[in-house]
Write a structure and sequence with these properties.
Distance between the termini: 46 Å
Organism: Melia azedarach
Largest sheet: 5 strands, antiparallel
Helix content: 25-40%
Number of helices: 8
Mean pLDDT: 83
Strand content: 5-15%
Protein name: Ribonuclease
Shape: globular
Length: 266
């Protein structure tokens, strides 16, 4: 077992006390276990993965109360949180580092914020580290949160810290101020979007696209939550990237049926 250093403990305490700061993608399958120690090594940096609801909700085919796309006029219109992921500099990452059972009661005071800024876009349950099914939040804290305990010491701290970093580094506001607004007709230069974030946070993000639309945007941080460049397989965002030179930020327009379901279930 890897124990946190005194410096790491001080960082964790400071994050929770001051609250000033305040994965599961199909392609992310390179989880690593140290063969010599039989346990996962200490991570190198944090990856804050954000989702663009306009791209995800376009493909909603089934509505339920747990799917944020089904909230009608109250559906998300800004980047929302996918997760805060501890990653390695070599492009791999740890997962399920400690036995943990998610307890929603521990984050009861954060639930309103989590529902709004860290919603699920699914009607199905997520897999947990124990081979069972649970909520989207349970999946994130068990799979990723347990690997960041040297910095964020418990379940509550993991969610609070993630929310605070998300609020401090508001990607949606930065892009809106730069003129990159949700649209189902406009396409924007990928380089311009990247530059707007670089100018605001002094670090390079990573974007993930699907069919020419921004699907996810990742911000990366050192362990003290100061921005750093994300690791990008192709730094020039050329043909190897999932994003073309011009991308869209689609606006989600709920259908009348979806809006009816959302209202009826409230």
């Amino acid at each position: 077992m890897v124990y946190p250093s005194l410096a790491q403990l001080l960082i964790a305490v400071a994050l929770v006390a001051t609250t000033s700061f305040c994965k599961l993608d199909a392609n992310r399958i390179r989880e690593v276990v140290d063969d010599d120690l039989g346990e996962q090594r200490e991570f190198d940096y944090f990856n804050l993965a954000l989702q663009w609801p306009g791209s995800i909700c376009q493909h909603t085919s089934h509505c339920c109360s747990s799917n944020a796309c089904c909230r009608g006029s109250n559906a998300p219109t800004e980047f929302t949180i996918h997760g805060l992921w501890p990653d390695y500099n070599d492009g791999t990452w740890p997962a399920c580092c400690k036995q943990s059972n998610f307890d929603e009661k521990e984050i009861s005071t954060l639930l309103d914020a989590l529902e709004k800024y860290w919603p699920s876009y699914s009607c199905g349950s997520s897999s947990t580290c124990h081979g069972t099914k649970g909520s989207f939040w349970a999946h994130e804290v068990e799979k990723h949160g347990t690997c960041s305990l040297t910095v964020v010491r418990d379940e509550y701290s993991y969610f609070l810290t993630t929310l605070n970093v998300y609020f401090k580094y508001n990607v949606t506001r930065v892009l809106n101020e730069a003129g990159y607004l949700p649209s189902n007709t406009e396409k924007y230069p990928l380089g311009g979007i990247v530059s707007a974030i670089q100018n605001a946070f002094h670090a390079t993000p990573k974007l993930v696209c699907s069919k020419g639309a921004v699907k996810e945007l990742h911000l990366c941080f050192f362990k003290d939550f100061k921005p750093r460049d994300c690791i990008i397989e192709n730094e020039n965002y050329s043909s190897r990237s999932s994003c073309p030179k011009y991308v869209s930020l689609p606006a989600y327009v709920p259908s009348a049926a979806v809006d009816h379901v959302a209202v009826r279930r409230h």
